[in-house]
Write a structure and sequence with these properties.
mainly alpha
């Protein structure tokens, strides 16, 4: 059984949250600009997996353990942030595998690395944990079975996240094409690399 009244409130609430620029949306924009929407889908797989994991853990109470032992979480998010800063630095310098100076270069970054990048960004995002811990339980009806409610909420979250990441990635791809026509490939790399670095610091210090 589901509480459709709660679900009807949750859908517009999370759509609004997903539409708001955040780490994952900025990452989708950045990768869409540098490697295109199609390959950015690999990052989305990792991000959606991470979001689903965070949502489930938050509802079942594992998140409270992390809140009681914040040092573990702090170390993890610093490592994740450093990883994103490293990738952004390589791209900014046009020495990394994510550079788009040549069409073939964008193919060098593997699907596995993109999935990992999305997954790390999702599960090391403190705002994501704060949202799920504080908001998701309020949309769970304690008088009904937990499992179908949790599944429904997670499905809504994943659909919403996928829709808006696709929109952001498509916008980045359009921007990349416009700049590319002006022979500003170096500028594209530096913009996307700078955004990646910003995401890394944002992840580590928020």
């Amino acid at each position: 059984m589901l509480d459709y009244a709660l679900l009807s409130l949750f859908i517009p609430t999370f759509l609004l949250i997903s539409a708001t620029p955040g780490m994952c949306m900025t990452l989708a924009l950045t990768l869409g600009m540098s490697i295109g929407v199609k390959r950015t889908l690999w990052m989305m797989i990792g991000e959606l997996t991470g979001v689903a994991l965070v949502s489930v853990l938050a509802v079942v109470g594992v998140a409270s353990l992390m809140l009681n032992y914040p040092t573990v979480f702090e170390v993890f998010k610093y490592v994740g942030g450093a990883y994103l800063v490293y990738l952004g630095s390589l791209q900014w310098l046009m020495r990394g595998k994510m550079t788009i100076a040549h069409n073939n270069d964008s193919q060098q970054i593997t699907a596995k690395k993109l999935i990992l990048q999305g997954f790390i960004t999702a599960i090391a995002n403190p705002k994501g944990w704060a949202f799920t811990v504080s908001l998701l339980p309020s949309f769970i009806n304690p008088d009904l079975t937990l499992t179908p409610q949790l599944i429904s909420l997670v499905i809504i979250i994943l659909i919403s996240e996928f829709i808006f990441m696709t929109i952001y990635a498509s916008g980045g791809r359009t921007l990349g094409k416009l700049l590319g026509k002006s022979q500003n490939v170096r500028l594209i790399n530096r913009i996307s690399g700078s955004l990646m670095i910003i995401i890394g610091f944002w992840l580590a210090f928020t």
